[in-house]
Fold this sequence. Notes:
By secondary structure, this protein is α/β, with parallel strands linked by helices. The chain has helices spanning about 1-10, 15-25, 30-45, 50-60, 65-80, 85-95, 100-110, 115-130, 135-145, 200, 225-235, 240-245, 255, 280-285, 375-385, 390-395, 395-410, 450-470, and strands at about 150-155, 160-170, 185-190, 210, 240, 265, 270, 295, 305-310, 325-330, 340-350, 350-360, 410-420, 425-430.
Amino acid sequence: MQRVLFAQSAVPATAHDRLRLAESLLDAGNIEDARTALQQAASLAPDDAAIYRALAAGFQAAGLRNESIAAEMAALAFEQHSALMLYNLGTSYLMTQRPAPAEKWYRAALRIDPELVAAHQNLASILEVDGIDGHKAQAQYHRDQAYRRQSLFVDIAEAPKRTVLVLCAAGTGNVPFDFLLPRATTHRIKWVMDYASAEQADRLPPYDIVFNAIGDQDVTQRSHDVVERFLSRCEKPVLNVPGAIARTSRELIPELLKNIDQVLVPRAVRLQRSENGALDARELMACGIRPPLLVRPAGSHGGDRLQLLETTSALARLDLPDQDCYASAYHDYRSADGYYRKYRVIFVDRQPFPYHLAISEHWQVHYVTADMLPHRWKRDEERRFLNDPAAVMGAEAMQALRVIGQRLDLDFCGVDFSILADGRILIFEANATMLVHLEEFHAALQFKNPYVQQILDAFDAMLTNSMVDKVYTPGSDQKSDL
Length: 482
């Protein structure tokens, strides 16, 4: 009866009105409506410490412990007018893959301190990939706000073995290097090259080696000239030289990896928008690419906004951002047992190392959505691949991977692929932006860590060796096909 009375009453006009409503709902045992009222109160008074203090108590009474802790932290942050505390709250959500509340707290932090560079950085990253119309422009705004203030960042190691200058792009398309260059042993000087200046180049801290982390050719144009000017004067060893990165764009990979036995690389075409915003399919027909098609925005990774189209006419109805897209022919790679398998091999100094195997019921395979945790048989199969990839794939496929590593000619990169029924390797993508990380959170997946550590150890050894015998000279990255 009490719930009906609340539904018929006037909608509370202020945050404090909604807070009082929530208290009444809690007294009546109506937890879900109380939670909604509490959240509405916070949305009406987003910076009111008293509201968040009451929210914490209300969430606690509702048995919502995590929400109560977050509200208590927010109340304390607003009472102390601390942008940093709000930033840390946002980062706790971002690290647990909850971008929506992270965005909320980063925006709150910036209302207190509009010059907080780290909040601008992380907010830009969230907005760049969420797929909401208009958010790419907002992402660019926050990148500008961050990197026009600061484009050089220094991470100090506890027990340094070396200092690495890391060349980065401001947006997406970087090599994930946190595990490759661990903060415990590596001084890292991160330089965002889109915003780099000649004056900074003259005042860089001392470093031992350069790692070019700008791993996606689609994002290199923004910083190409400044990177080349810097490297033309650089006297230190350079890993992942830009010329080798340039050869890994999606439309060039088929040519780079052509005529390798046991390898199938689908043709890819970059489709440009016409004046009316539609994608032009004529080049598809000219290249002999027929449906079904895989289409994705240029510069995207990890299956972000990847779509499978059954007809070319579907391109006109495609709901993708206003940017160029890549299209390639889709090959059905389902195994005989009905599952789809995606293997990842990492190349360190051109040598292959197995990294993971994801097994899914869906054609778009991602490790995090492949339900590897609940199914022991999937993990057992992955373990066999990691332990002896040649036994799983066959000797010819393993040899083909070695050739792929030489063709890519990068110090660090990777390839995602499947194995077709006839034993051929079907290439999904091959580039430097591959994530390598130790498994820290799921005990059932920690069997992978010794194999991941082999990759990290090989990368560490390559850094040591490169500091001795590899120095960049302009034009040295222009190699012919093997």
